[in-house]
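Quick one: examine this chain and its backbone structure tokens and tell me how the chain folds. Here goes:
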Amino acid sequence: MDQKNKNSKKPKYSKFSQQELPAWKPILTPGWVITTFIIIGALFIPTGLLALAASDSVVEIIDRYDEACIPDAYTQKAESYIQNPNEKKTCTRTIRVPKKMVAPIFVYYQLENFYQNHRRFVKSKSDKQLRDPQAEGDTQNCFPIDYTTDNKPIVPCGLIAWSLFNDTYKLSSRGKAIDIDKKGIAWKSDMEAKFGSDVYPKNFQNGPLIGGAKLDDSIPLSKQEDLIVWMRTAALPKFRKLYGKINTDLDAHETITAEVENNYNTYRFGGRKKLVLSTTTWIGGKNDFLGIAYISVGGLCLFMAINFILLYVFRPRRLGDPSYLSWNRQPIV
């Protein structure tokens, strides 16, 4: 072998590297195209109708309370009211059940105009600290919620945990309390992998500026499900997070009394707060988008199929001979 061939960077020949492996190369004749469009339309439209029907069967109650829970004297200065520790924050709301709600009924809090996806907000946490009790000093991404004034590490540190939602809800009907189950609201993978079972809150919300809810120092982070739900940040400024579950049915036209503890300060940035009660179906909660998308795509495919049929019938074109295609030619010996 000469020196030129020895230094060559030309790869060793193979059918794979030269893209000569056997391949299916279909010829898209009018019959195949029309049939494909018809099949897609026939599958997508019924699927979309089923998804819409399932979404329509979801019973959902939405009650916005951020403005209604501000006393008349504080209408123009809501933020000073929410920051005043001497003012009573309890607010009573009346909710009417439009149709029977079959358990489990999910209780959500909905926030609007809250940008959890802000880059600085999303980065303001320490995954290592949340998992490992030996890493409580790992707070480099958590400034300014990293250390107390006497230089003790905050666990969990960062803006996400510090801003933990702290409104509370108590529901009752006919004078009897409705139990809201707070267990099982977080992802199991988060509880087992992201939050340590031997990591406990330390120095949390002990500073001069309180951002949100406090945490029980005797409960490990893996059991603090409200925190785990909150720290799975939302992608959009309007989002819902699971607060709890009701495991009993609610009858149609039943009146629910909601005692809301209005603590969370959304007034500074013009945010909105809503209490949501919702049932679910096989597609999840109430969402018409999936059904509309399926019907739209299916309808477009049927429309294209009809157009191709009309063109094929009234203005047909002679098809070429497939034997002239490069992959159908016989190799020259």
Q: What stands out?
A: Residues 26-58+281-313 form one domain. The beta strands are 60-64, 90-96, 105-112, 168-173, 176-178, 239-246, 255-261, 272-278. Residues 30-56 form the longest helix (27 residues). The chain has two domains: 26-58+281-313, 82-279.
